[in-house]
Amino acid sequence: MKKTLRFSLLSMLFMLCGTMMAQTVVTIDFDNDYQTLFPTLPGVSSSSSSDGDFTTATTSAAVQGVTVTVSEKASGSNNNRIWSSSPRLRMYSGTFTVSGKDITEIVFTDNGKFNMSTETGTLTDKTWIGKADEVVFNIGGNTQLKKIEVTLGGEEIDPSQLAKVLYTEAFTQNQGKFTIDNKFLHDSLEYVWKFNSYGAVASAYLKNTCYDSESWLVSPIIDLTNATEVSLEFTHAINNFASIDDAKTKAIVMVKVDNGNWVPLNGVTYPEALGWTFIENKIDLSAIADGKKLQVAFKYTSDDESAGTWEIKPFTIKGKGEATIEAEEVPPTPVASVADLVQLTANTANIELTLAGAQVVLNDGNNIYVREGNAAFCLYKIGDPLSKSLVNNAKVDGKLRGDFEWYNKMPEFKSNGYTDAATLNVVAVETEEEHAKPVATTLAEVGKHVCDLVTLKANLSRDTTGGNNTYYLEQENTKLVVVNNGKNLKALCDSDVVDVTVIGVVTTTKDGYQLKLTKNAIDNEAANVRNIEATENKQATVVYNLAGQRVNALRKGLYIINGKKVVK
After folding, report:
1. What's the pLDDT score for residue 531?
2. How many Å apart are CA 241 and CA 456, to the nearest integer?
Protein backbone atom coordinates (compact mmCIF):
# COMPACT_ATOMS: atom_id res chain seq x y z
CA MET A 1 0.00 0.00 0.00
CA LYS A 2 2.74 2.41 0.94
CA LYS A 3 4.73 1.35 -2.10
CA THR A 4 1.79 2.03 -4.39
CA LEU A 5 1.31 5.43 -2.82
CA ARG A 6 4.99 6.29 -3.28
CA PHE A 7 4.87 5.43 -6.97
CA SER A 8 1.72 7.52 -7.37
CA LEU A 9 3.44 10.51 -5.79
CA LEU A 10 6.47 10.05 -8.01
CA SER A 11 4.24 9.85 -11.06
CA MET A 12 2.54 13.10 -10.08
CA LEU A 13 5.91 14.79 -9.56
CA PHE A 14 7.10 13.65 -12.97
CA MET A 15 3.89 14.93 -14.51
CA LEU A 16 4.27 18.30 -12.77
CA CYS A 17 7.92 18.58 -13.75
CA GLY A 18 7.04 17.63 -17.30
CA THR A 19 4.44 20.41 -17.42
CA MET A 20 6.86 22.93 -15.98
CA MET A 21 9.62 21.93 -18.36
CA ALA A 22 7.23 22.10 -21.32
CA GLN A 23 6.43 25.73 -20.56
CA THR A 24 9.08 27.94 -22.18
CA VAL A 25 9.37 31.65 -22.94
CA VAL A 26 10.90 32.58 -26.29
CA THR A 27 12.10 36.15 -26.76
CA ILE A 28 12.30 37.61 -30.26
CA ASP A 29 14.30 40.84 -30.21
CA PHE A 30 13.70 42.88 -33.35
CA ASP A 31 15.99 45.70 -32.22
CA ASN A 32 19.16 43.66 -31.70
CA ASP A 33 18.64 40.49 -33.76
CA TYR A 34 17.02 41.86 -36.92
CA GLN A 35 19.94 40.85 -39.16
CA THR A 36 19.77 37.25 -37.93
CA LEU A 37 15.99 37.17 -38.09
CA PHE A 38 15.71 38.50 -41.64
CA PRO A 39 18.96 37.65 -43.45
CA THR A 40 17.34 37.88 -46.90
CA LEU A 41 16.85 41.62 -46.61
CA PRO A 42 19.66 43.59 -48.29
CA GLY A 43 19.78 46.10 -45.43
CA VAL A 44 17.57 48.40 -43.40
CA SER A 45 15.14 51.09 -44.47
CA SER A 46 15.58 54.80 -43.84
CA SER A 47 14.56 58.09 -45.37
CA SER A 48 16.94 57.34 -48.24
CA SER A 49 16.78 53.53 -48.44
CA SER A 50 14.11 50.84 -48.81
CA ASP A 51 16.47 47.89 -48.29
CA GLY A 52 14.57 46.78 -45.19
CA ASP A 53 11.09 46.88 -46.74
CA PHE A 54 9.07 43.66 -46.82
CA THR A 55 8.02 43.46 -50.48
CA THR A 56 6.98 39.80 -50.77
CA ALA A 57 3.55 38.46 -49.78
CA THR A 58 4.92 37.27 -46.44
CA THR A 59 8.29 37.39 -44.66
CA SER A 60 9.01 35.01 -41.77
CA ALA A 61 11.58 34.46 -39.03
CA ALA A 62 11.87 31.46 -36.68
CA VAL A 63 13.37 31.30 -33.17
CA GLN A 64 13.26 28.23 -30.89
CA GLY A 65 9.94 26.86 -32.09
CA VAL A 66 8.27 30.25 -32.63
CA THR A 67 7.71 31.72 -36.08
CA VAL A 68 6.70 35.31 -36.75
CA THR A 69 5.35 36.31 -40.15
CA VAL A 70 4.89 39.86 -41.48
CA SER A 71 2.64 40.36 -44.49
CA GLU A 72 3.23 42.78 -47.31
CA LYS A 73 1.65 46.21 -46.98
CA ALA A 74 -2.00 46.78 -47.85
CA SER A 75 -2.76 48.78 -50.97
CA GLY A 76 -1.90 52.44 -50.57
CA SER A 77 -0.07 52.03 -47.25
CA ASN A 78 3.58 52.37 -46.33
CA ASN A 79 5.68 49.22 -46.62
CA ASN A 80 6.14 47.16 -43.46
CA ARG A 81 9.88 47.27 -42.78
CA ILE A 82 12.98 46.91 -40.65
CA TRP A 83 14.00 50.49 -39.88
CA SER A 84 17.46 51.97 -39.39
CA SER A 85 16.87 52.98 -35.77
CA SER A 86 15.03 51.67 -32.75
CA PRO A 87 12.45 50.30 -32.80
CA ARG A 88 13.41 48.26 -35.82
CA LEU A 89 10.18 46.49 -36.78
CA ARG A 90 7.71 49.06 -38.09
CA MET A 91 4.38 47.99 -39.56
CA TYR A 92 1.49 49.98 -40.96
CA SER A 93 -1.01 47.53 -42.44
CA GLY A 94 -1.62 43.87 -43.21
CA THR A 95 -1.06 41.14 -40.62
CA PHE A 96 1.50 40.02 -38.04
CA THR A 97 1.32 36.29 -37.23
CA VAL A 98 2.87 34.36 -34.34
CA SER A 99 3.01 30.54 -34.67
CA GLY A 100 4.13 27.87 -32.20
CA LYS A 101 2.93 24.86 -30.21
CA ASP A 102 0.40 25.77 -27.49
CA ILE A 103 0.96 29.53 -27.30
CA THR A 104 -0.54 30.81 -24.04
CA GLU A 105 0.87 34.33 -23.80
CA ILE A 106 2.49 36.96 -26.03
CA VAL A 107 3.88 40.14 -24.48
CA PHE A 108 4.69 43.02 -26.84
CA THR A 109 7.28 45.73 -26.14
CA ASP A 110 6.83 48.84 -28.26
CA ASN A 111 7.62 52.55 -28.09
CA GLY A 112 4.10 53.84 -27.64
CA LYS A 113 2.93 53.12 -31.17
CA PHE A 114 0.76 50.00 -31.08
CA ASN A 115 -2.31 49.52 -33.28
CA MET A 116 -3.13 45.82 -33.51
CA SER A 117 -6.18 43.64 -32.87
CA THR A 118 -7.02 39.95 -33.04
CA GLU A 119 -10.07 37.69 -33.08
CA THR A 120 -8.26 34.93 -31.17
CA GLY A 121 -7.85 34.97 -27.39
CA THR A 122 -7.70 38.24 -25.46
CA LEU A 123 -5.41 41.19 -26.24
CA THR A 124 -5.21 43.58 -23.27
CA ASP A 125 -2.61 46.27 -22.75
CA LYS A 126 -0.18 44.81 -25.31
CA THR A 127 -0.42 41.32 -23.78
CA TRP A 128 -2.20 38.48 -25.57
CA ILE A 129 -3.50 35.49 -23.59
CA GLY A 130 -5.33 32.37 -24.74
CA LYS A 131 -4.33 28.99 -26.14
CA ALA A 132 -3.55 28.56 -29.83
CA ASP A 133 -0.92 27.30 -32.25
CA GLU A 134 -1.28 30.41 -34.39
CA VAL A 135 -2.38 33.95 -33.55
CA VAL A 136 -3.04 36.45 -36.34
CA PHE A 137 -2.92 40.15 -35.45
CA ASN A 138 -4.44 42.74 -37.77
CA ILE A 139 -2.29 45.85 -38.12
CA GLY A 140 -4.59 48.85 -37.91
CA GLY A 141 -1.96 51.61 -38.15
CA ASN A 142 1.55 52.65 -37.18
CA THR A 143 2.92 49.86 -34.95
CA GLN A 144 6.57 49.81 -33.84
CA LEU A 145 7.79 46.71 -32.01
CA LYS A 146 11.07 46.31 -30.15
CA LYS A 147 10.53 42.70 -29.08
CA ILE A 148 7.95 40.04 -28.23
CA GLU A 149 8.03 37.35 -25.52
CA VAL A 150 6.08 34.21 -26.42
CA THR A 151 5.10 31.61 -23.80
CA LEU A 152 4.68 28.07 -25.14
CA GLY A 153 2.84 25.41 -23.11
CA GLY A 154 1.34 25.61 -19.67
CA GLU A 155 -2.21 26.31 -18.62
CA GLU A 156 -4.36 28.93 -20.30
CA ILE A 157 -4.35 32.17 -18.30
CA ASP A 158 -7.55 33.57 -16.83
CA PRO A 159 -7.88 37.11 -18.26
CA SER A 160 -9.17 38.37 -14.91
CA GLN A 161 -5.85 37.39 -13.34
CA LEU A 162 -3.84 39.52 -15.74
CA ALA A 163 -2.52 42.92 -14.67
CA LYS A 164 -4.06 45.71 -16.72
CA VAL A 165 -3.93 49.47 -17.03
CA LEU A 166 -5.87 51.02 -14.15
CA TYR A 167 -5.07 54.66 -14.96
CA THR A 168 -2.90 56.40 -17.55
CA GLU A 169 -2.04 59.86 -18.85
CA ALA A 170 -0.17 60.30 -22.14
CA PHE A 171 0.97 63.90 -21.40
CA THR A 172 1.59 64.46 -25.14
CA GLN A 173 -1.28 66.96 -25.51
CA ASN A 174 -2.20 68.10 -22.03
CA GLN A 175 -1.86 67.38 -18.33
CA GLY A 176 -5.03 65.33 -18.17
CA LYS A 177 -6.32 65.03 -14.61
CA PHE A 178 -2.95 66.00 -13.13
CA THR A 179 -2.64 69.41 -11.46
CA ILE A 180 0.31 71.80 -11.36
CA ASP A 181 1.36 73.12 -7.97
CA ASN A 182 3.86 75.97 -8.32
CA LYS A 183 5.51 76.13 -4.90
CA PHE A 184 7.76 78.92 -6.19
CA LEU A 185 7.82 80.55 -9.62
CA HIS A 186 10.32 83.28 -10.49
CA ASP A 187 8.77 86.54 -11.65
CA SER A 188 10.37 86.07 -15.07
CA LEU A 189 8.57 82.75 -15.62
CA GLU A 190 4.97 82.21 -16.66
CA TYR A 191 5.15 78.44 -16.23
CA VAL A 192 7.49 75.49 -15.69
CA TRP A 193 5.44 72.61 -17.16
CA LYS A 194 4.26 72.36 -20.75
CA PHE A 195 2.86 69.44 -22.73
CA ASN A 196 3.81 68.42 -26.28
CA SER A 197 5.01 65.41 -28.28
CA TYR A 198 7.86 64.93 -25.77
CA GLY A 199 5.34 64.52 -22.95
CA ALA A 200 5.22 66.57 -19.77
CA VAL A 201 8.22 68.90 -20.09
CA ALA A 202 9.56 70.87 -17.10
CA SER A 203 12.14 73.63 -17.47
CA ALA A 204 12.96 76.94 -15.77
CA TYR A 205 15.48 77.99 -18.42
CA LEU A 206 14.38 81.03 -20.41
CA LYS A 207 16.32 83.29 -22.78
CA ASN A 208 19.73 81.85 -21.84
CA THR A 209 19.03 82.30 -18.13
CA CYS A 210 18.46 79.79 -15.31
CA TYR A 211 15.74 80.76 -12.83
CA ASP A 212 14.80 79.55 -9.37
CA SER A 213 11.68 77.44 -9.24
CA GLU A 214 9.87 74.56 -7.55
CA SER A 215 6.89 73.12 -9.37
CA TRP A 216 5.05 69.83 -8.83
CA LEU A 217 3.02 67.90 -11.40
CA VAL A 218 0.57 66.02 -9.17
CA SER A 219 -1.67 63.08 -10.02
CA PRO A 220 -5.26 62.85 -8.84
CA ILE A 221 -5.98 60.52 -5.95
CA ILE A 222 -5.96 56.98 -7.38
CA ASP A 223 -8.22 54.76 -5.27
CA LEU A 224 -6.69 51.27 -5.32
CA THR A 225 -8.88 49.82 -2.59
CA ASN A 226 -9.94 47.02 -4.95
CA ALA A 227 -6.58 46.54 -6.67
CA THR A 228 -3.56 44.31 -6.09
CA GLU A 229 -0.08 43.89 -7.60
CA VAL A 230 0.02 47.62 -8.32
CA SER A 231 2.92 49.01 -10.36
CA LEU A 232 3.94 52.36 -11.82
CA GLU A 233 5.34 52.70 -15.33
CA PHE A 234 6.73 55.79 -17.05
CA THR A 235 9.66 56.84 -19.22
CA HIS A 236 11.68 60.00 -18.74
CA ALA A 237 14.56 61.91 -20.31
CA ILE A 238 16.81 64.30 -18.39
CA ASN A 239 19.14 66.91 -19.87
CA ASN A 240 20.75 70.32 -19.30
CA PHE A 241 21.24 69.95 -15.54
CA ALA A 242 24.69 70.57 -14.09
CA SER A 243 25.20 66.78 -13.93
CA ILE A 244 23.20 63.60 -13.61
CA ASP A 245 23.78 63.68 -9.85
CA ASP A 246 22.42 67.22 -9.79
CA ALA A 247 19.37 66.03 -11.74
CA LYS A 248 18.68 63.30 -9.18
CA THR A 249 18.20 66.01 -6.55
CA LYS A 250 16.04 68.25 -8.77
CA ALA A 251 13.89 65.77 -10.73
CA ILE A 252 12.31 63.63 -8.02
CA VAL A 253 9.31 61.30 -8.09
CA MET A 254 7.21 61.64 -4.93
CA VAL A 255 4.41 59.43 -3.55
CA LYS A 256 1.74 59.83 -0.92
CA VAL A 257 -0.34 56.92 0.41
CA ASP A 258 -3.75 57.52 2.00
CA ASN A 259 -3.44 60.65 4.15
CA GLY A 260 0.29 60.28 4.78
CA ASN A 261 3.14 62.60 3.92
CA TRP A 262 4.83 63.03 0.58
CA VAL A 263 8.03 60.94 0.39
CA PRO A 264 10.51 60.25 -2.43
CA LEU A 265 9.73 57.06 -4.34
CA ASN A 266 12.39 54.36 -4.13
CA GLY A 267 13.46 52.45 -7.21
CA VAL A 268 13.39 55.22 -9.83
CA THR A 269 15.84 54.53 -12.68
CA TYR A 270 17.77 57.54 -13.95
CA PRO A 271 19.92 57.66 -17.09
CA GLU A 272 23.65 57.14 -16.68
CA ALA A 273 24.34 60.44 -18.42
CA LEU A 274 22.43 63.56 -19.42
CA GLY A 275 20.70 63.37 -22.79
CA TRP A 276 17.42 63.01 -24.64
CA THR A 277 17.16 59.21 -24.43
CA PHE A 278 14.00 58.09 -22.64
CA ILE A 279 14.63 55.62 -19.79
CA GLU A 280 11.95 53.08 -18.85
CA ASN A 281 10.72 52.77 -15.28
CA LYS A 282 8.64 49.84 -14.05
CA ILE A 283 8.33 50.12 -10.27
CA ASP A 284 6.51 47.61 -8.07
CA LEU A 285 4.20 49.53 -5.72
CA SER A 286 2.32 46.53 -4.31
CA ALA A 287 4.00 46.78 -0.89
CA ILE A 288 2.83 50.36 -0.36
CA ALA A 289 -0.21 50.82 -2.63
CA ASP A 290 -2.27 47.61 -2.78
CA GLY A 291 -5.65 48.35 -1.23
CA LYS A 292 -4.71 51.99 -0.58
CA LYS A 293 -5.27 55.44 -2.03
CA LEU A 294 -2.22 56.69 -3.94
CA GLN A 295 -0.92 59.96 -5.33
CA VAL A 296 2.23 60.41 -7.40
CA ALA A 297 3.97 63.72 -8.09
CA PHE A 298 6.88 64.77 -10.28
CA LYS A 299 8.79 67.40 -8.29
CA TYR A 300 10.98 69.75 -10.37
CA THR A 301 13.33 72.31 -8.83
CA SER A 302 15.94 74.66 -10.27
CA ASP A 303 18.27 77.45 -9.24
CA ASP A 304 20.18 80.26 -10.93
CA GLU A 305 23.02 77.89 -11.86
CA SER A 306 21.12 74.78 -12.99
CA ALA A 307 17.70 74.73 -14.65
CA GLY A 308 17.56 71.48 -16.56
CA THR A 309 14.85 69.89 -18.68
CA TRP A 310 12.79 66.90 -17.51
CA GLU A 311 10.57 65.08 -20.02
CA ILE A 312 8.07 62.43 -18.90
CA LYS A 313 5.67 60.20 -20.88
CA PRO A 314 3.41 58.34 -20.44
CA PHE A 315 2.28 57.82 -16.83
CA THR A 316 0.61 54.45 -16.17
CA ILE A 317 -0.66 52.62 -13.09
CA LYS A 318 -1.16 48.87 -13.64
CA GLY A 319 -2.53 46.11 -11.46
CA LYS A 320 -5.20 43.48 -10.98
CA GLY A 321 -8.68 44.54 -10.04
CA GLU A 322 -10.15 48.00 -10.41
CA ALA A 323 -9.24 51.60 -9.62
CA THR A 324 -11.23 54.82 -9.40
CA ILE A 325 -9.91 58.33 -9.87
CA GLU A 326 -10.70 61.07 -7.38
CA ALA A 327 -9.69 64.07 -9.42
CA GLU A 328 -9.91 67.29 -7.49
CA GLU A 329 -12.56 69.39 -9.17
CA VAL A 330 -11.01 72.80 -9.71
CA PRO A 331 -13.59 75.41 -10.77
CA PRO A 332 -12.73 76.71 -14.23
CA THR A 333 -12.10 80.34 -15.07
CA PRO A 334 -15.11 81.51 -17.14
CA VAL A 335 -14.36 83.27 -20.43
CA ALA A 336 -17.49 84.76 -21.95
CA SER A 337 -16.44 85.03 -25.61
CA VAL A 338 -13.62 84.62 -28.10
CA ALA A 339 -13.06 88.39 -27.90
CA ASP A 340 -12.41 87.97 -24.15
CA LEU A 341 -10.22 84.93 -24.79
CA VAL A 342 -7.79 86.79 -27.04
CA GLN A 343 -7.56 89.57 -24.47
CA LEU A 344 -5.92 87.22 -21.96
CA THR A 345 -2.34 88.36 -21.51
CA ALA A 346 -0.94 85.16 -19.98
CA ASN A 347 -1.29 81.42 -20.41
CA THR A 348 -4.29 80.29 -18.38
CA ALA A 349 -5.09 76.69 -17.44
CA ASN A 350 -8.59 75.33 -16.86
CA ILE A 351 -10.87 77.85 -18.50
CA GLU A 352 -14.46 77.46 -19.67
CA LEU A 353 -15.00 79.25 -22.97
CA THR A 354 -18.50 80.17 -24.09
CA LEU A 355 -19.04 80.06 -27.85
CA ALA A 356 -22.09 81.74 -29.36
CA GLY A 357 -22.46 82.03 -33.11
CA ALA A 358 -18.88 80.88 -33.73
CA GLN A 359 -17.84 79.38 -37.05
CA VAL A 360 -14.98 77.20 -38.26
CA VAL A 361 -12.99 79.05 -40.93
CA LEU A 362 -10.44 76.26 -41.50
CA ASN A 363 -9.82 72.73 -40.25
CA ASP A 364 -6.41 71.57 -41.49
CA GLY A 365 -6.28 68.36 -39.44
CA ASN A 366 -4.08 69.38 -36.53
CA ASN A 367 -5.42 72.91 -36.10
CA ILE A 368 -8.96 74.22 -36.23
CA TYR A 369 -9.41 77.97 -36.65
CA VAL A 370 -12.62 79.41 -35.22
CA ARG A 371 -14.09 82.89 -35.64
CA GLU A 372 -16.68 84.56 -33.43
CA GLY A 373 -17.61 88.11 -34.37
CA ASN A 374 -14.36 89.98 -35.10
CA ALA A 375 -12.11 87.64 -33.05
CA ALA A 376 -10.61 84.25 -33.85
CA PHE A 377 -8.49 81.59 -32.17
CA CYS A 378 -6.95 78.16 -32.81
CA LEU A 379 -8.11 74.83 -31.38
CA TYR A 380 -4.78 73.00 -31.27
CA LYS A 381 -4.81 69.18 -31.62
CA ILE A 382 -8.16 69.04 -29.88
CA GLY A 383 -8.54 65.36 -30.79
CA ASP A 384 -11.53 63.25 -31.76
CA PRO A 385 -14.47 63.54 -31.82
CA LEU A 386 -14.25 67.34 -31.97
CA SER A 387 -11.67 67.39 -34.76
CA LYS A 388 -14.00 65.36 -36.98
CA SER A 389 -17.19 67.26 -36.21
CA LEU A 390 -15.69 70.75 -36.57
CA VAL A 391 -15.58 70.71 -40.37
CA ASN A 392 -14.97 73.80 -42.46
CA ASN A 393 -17.74 76.40 -42.06
CA ALA A 394 -19.52 74.52 -39.25
CA LYS A 395 -21.45 76.68 -36.75
CA VAL A 396 -20.53 76.17 -33.08
CA ASP A 397 -22.32 77.03 -29.83
CA GLY A 398 -21.84 75.91 -26.22
CA LYS A 399 -19.24 75.80 -23.45
CA LEU A 400 -15.84 74.14 -23.76
CA ARG A 401 -13.22 73.57 -21.06
CA GLY A 402 -9.52 73.49 -21.72
CA ASP A 403 -6.24 75.37 -21.37
CA PHE A 404 -5.29 78.63 -23.08
CA GLU A 405 -1.79 79.40 -24.31
CA TRP A 406 -0.10 82.06 -26.42
CA TYR A 407 2.19 80.33 -28.92
CA ASN A 408 4.24 82.58 -31.21
CA LYS A 409 1.63 85.34 -30.74
CA MET A 410 -1.15 82.93 -31.72
CA PRO A 411 -4.04 82.29 -29.28
CA GLU A 412 -4.34 78.51 -28.83
CA PHE A 413 -6.93 76.52 -26.92
CA LYS A 414 -5.85 73.01 -25.88
CA SER A 415 -7.82 70.13 -24.43
CA ASN A 416 -7.30 68.96 -20.86
CA GLY A 417 -8.81 66.31 -18.61
CA TYR A 418 -12.09 68.21 -18.45
CA THR A 419 -12.60 68.79 -22.19
CA ASP A 420 -15.89 67.27 -23.30
CA ALA A 421 -17.09 67.41 -26.90
CA ALA A 422 -20.68 66.81 -25.79
CA THR A 423 -20.86 70.33 -24.35
CA LEU A 424 -20.81 71.85 -27.84
CA ASN A 425 -23.57 72.05 -30.41
CA VAL A 426 -21.97 71.75 -33.87
CA VAL A 427 -24.03 72.18 -37.04
CA ALA A 428 -22.57 71.73 -40.54
CA VAL A 429 -23.83 74.34 -43.03
CA GLU A 430 -25.37 73.23 -46.29
CA THR A 431 -25.32 76.26 -48.59
CA GLU A 432 -22.46 78.35 -49.90
CA GLU A 433 -24.22 81.48 -48.66
CA GLU A 434 -23.63 80.25 -45.10
CA HIS A 435 -19.88 79.74 -45.61
CA ALA A 436 -17.47 81.90 -43.63
CA LYS A 437 -16.64 85.04 -45.56
CA PRO A 438 -13.02 86.27 -45.66
CA VAL A 439 -12.14 89.67 -44.21
CA ALA A 440 -10.46 92.02 -46.69
CA THR A 441 -7.08 93.23 -45.43
CA THR A 442 -3.56 94.20 -46.49
CA LEU A 443 -0.19 92.65 -45.75
CA ALA A 444 0.60 95.43 -43.33
CA GLU A 445 -2.57 94.68 -41.34
CA VAL A 446 -2.52 90.84 -41.18
CA GLY A 447 -1.34 90.94 -37.56
CA LYS A 448 -4.80 92.19 -36.60
CA HIS A 449 -6.42 89.03 -38.02
CA VAL A 450 -4.44 86.13 -36.50
CA CYS A 451 -6.34 82.82 -36.84
CA ASP A 452 -8.98 84.48 -39.04
CA LEU A 453 -9.90 84.01 -42.70
CA VAL A 454 -8.77 86.92 -44.85
CA THR A 455 -8.49 87.93 -48.48
CA LEU A 456 -5.89 90.26 -49.94
CA LYS A 457 -4.31 91.24 -53.24
CA ALA A 458 -0.55 91.17 -53.67
CA ASN A 459 2.34 90.02 -55.82
CA LEU A 460 3.24 86.33 -55.59
CA SER A 461 6.88 85.30 -55.97
CA ARG A 462 9.04 82.25 -55.42
CA ASP A 463 12.48 82.18 -53.76
CA THR A 464 14.72 79.25 -54.71
CA THR A 465 18.06 80.72 -53.64
CA GLY A 466 20.26 78.51 -51.49
CA GLY A 467 18.04 75.51 -52.08
CA ASN A 468 14.97 77.26 -50.71
CA ASN A 469 11.52 76.79 -52.17
CA THR A 470 9.55 79.50 -50.44
CA TYR A 471 6.60 81.48 -51.75
CA TYR A 472 5.94 85.06 -50.73
CA LEU A 473 3.25 87.65 -51.04
CA GLU A 474 4.63 91.18 -51.47
CA GLN A 475 2.81 94.47 -51.13
CA GLU A 476 4.37 97.91 -50.64
CA ASN A 477 7.68 96.54 -49.31
CA THR A 478 5.89 94.14 -46.93
CA LYS A 479 6.61 90.44 -47.39
CA LEU A 480 4.58 87.46 -46.13
CA VAL A 481 5.31 83.72 -46.37
CA VAL A 482 2.61 81.66 -48.08
CA VAL A 483 1.93 78.07 -47.03
CA ASN A 484 0.31 75.77 -49.57
CA ASN A 485 0.86 72.41 -51.29
CA GLY A 486 3.09 74.16 -53.83
CA LYS A 487 1.70 72.83 -57.12
CA ASN A 488 -0.69 75.69 -57.89
CA LEU A 489 1.82 78.25 -56.70
CA LYS A 490 4.62 76.77 -58.82
CA ALA A 491 2.49 76.89 -61.95
CA LEU A 492 1.68 80.52 -61.33
CA CYS A 493 5.06 82.02 -60.61
CA ASP A 494 7.78 79.79 -62.01
CA SER A 495 8.80 82.38 -64.55
CA ASP A 496 7.76 85.70 -63.12
CA VAL A 497 6.06 87.60 -60.33
CA VAL A 498 2.27 87.61 -60.78
CA ASP A 499 -0.57 89.59 -59.23
CA VAL A 500 -2.96 87.41 -57.23
CA THR A 501 -5.94 87.71 -54.93
CA VAL A 502 -5.71 85.06 -52.23
CA ILE A 503 -7.85 83.66 -49.42
CA GLY A 504 -6.30 82.08 -46.35
CA VAL A 505 -5.94 81.99 -42.58
CA VAL A 506 -3.32 84.16 -40.87
CA THR A 507 -1.04 82.05 -38.66
CA THR A 508 2.29 82.71 -36.98
CA THR A 509 5.84 81.46 -36.79
CA LYS A 510 8.62 82.36 -34.39
CA ASP A 511 9.74 84.95 -36.96
CA GLY A 512 6.39 86.58 -37.70
CA TYR A 513 3.19 85.95 -39.64
CA GLN A 514 2.32 83.67 -42.52
CA LEU A 515 -0.74 82.94 -44.64
CA LYS A 516 -2.10 79.39 -44.81
CA LEU A 517 -4.06 79.21 -48.05
CA THR A 518 -7.41 77.48 -48.25
CA LYS A 519 -8.35 75.25 -51.17
CA ASN A 520 -9.07 77.06 -54.44
CA ALA A 521 -7.80 80.20 -52.76
CA ILE A 522 -5.88 81.76 -55.67
CA ASP A 523 -7.49 84.09 -58.16
CA ASN A 524 -5.74 85.94 -60.96
CA GLU A 525 -6.18 86.51 -64.65
CA ALA A 526 -4.05 83.47 -65.44
CA ALA A 527 -5.98 81.14 -63.14
CA ASN A 528 -9.28 82.17 -64.71
CA VAL A 529 -8.22 81.05 -68.19
CA ARG A 530 -9.45 77.50 -68.74
CA ASN A 531 -9.78 76.87 -72.43
CA ILE A 532 -9.03 79.68 -74.84
CA GLU A 533 -9.99 77.51 -77.81
CA ALA A 534 -13.60 77.36 -76.59
CA THR A 535 -14.18 81.12 -76.57
CA GLU A 536 -16.17 82.82 -79.29
CA ASN A 537 -13.37 85.21 -80.17
CA LYS A 538 -10.88 82.41 -80.74
CA GLN A 539 -9.82 83.75 -84.14
CA ALA A 540 -9.06 87.18 -82.64
CA THR A 541 -6.89 85.74 -79.87
CA VAL A 542 -3.12 85.90 -80.46
CA VAL A 543 -1.14 83.42 -78.36
CA TYR A 544 2.67 83.16 -78.00
CA ASN A 545 4.83 80.89 -75.88
CA LEU A 546 7.67 82.33 -73.79
CA ALA A 547 10.10 81.84 -76.69
CA GLY A 548 8.04 84.33 -78.72
CA GLN A 549 6.64 81.68 -81.06
CA ARG A 550 3.00 81.91 -82.05
CA VAL A 551 0.99 78.81 -81.11
CA ASN A 552 -2.48 77.52 -81.87
CA ALA A 553 -3.07 74.50 -79.64
CA LEU A 554 -2.66 75.22 -75.91
CA ARG A 555 -1.31 72.72 -73.44
CA LYS A 556 -0.72 73.39 -69.73
CA GLY A 557 1.83 76.12 -69.25
CA LEU A 558 2.57 79.85 -69.33
CA TYR A 559 1.67 81.89 -72.44
CA ILE A 560 1.46 85.46 -73.72
CA ILE A 561 -2.18 86.00 -74.74
CA ASN A 562 -3.06 89.35 -76.25
CA GLY A 563 -0.05 90.85 -74.54
CA LYS A 564 -0.68 89.38 -71.07
CA LYS A 565 0.95 86.46 -69.27
CA VAL A 566 -1.56 83.70 -68.70
CA VAL A 567 -1.31 80.23 -67.16
CA LYS A 568 -3.40 77.43 -68.60
Report:
1. 31
2. 48
Tell me how far apart the alpha carbons of residues 387 and 243 are, in angstroms, rounded to a whole number: 42
367-386 tens-digit pLDDT: 899 999 999 999 987 877 77
Separation between Cα atoms, residue 392 and residue 363, nearest integer Å: 6
Residue pair 227/319 in contact by the 8 Å Cβ criterion: yes
pLDDT at 494 over 60: no
Q: How far apart are CA 450 and CA 445, in angstroms?
A: 10
Nearest by Cα to 457 from 484, 476, 433: 476
Estimate to the nearest angstrom the gap between the alpha carbon of 16 and the chain centroid: 49
Residue type for 378, please? C
Which H, E and C letters describe 5-58, residue by residue?
A: HHHHHHHHHHHHHHHHHHCEEEEEEHHHHHHHHCCCCCCCEECCEECCECCCCE
* Cα maximum dimension of the chain: 120
pTM of the model: 0.54
3-state SS record for 375-421? EEEEEECCCCCHHHHCCCCCEEEEEEEEEEEEECCEEEEECCCCCCH
Q: Please spell the DSSP secondary structure of 438-455, one letter per residue.
A: PEE--GGGGGGGBTSEEE
The residue type at 123: L
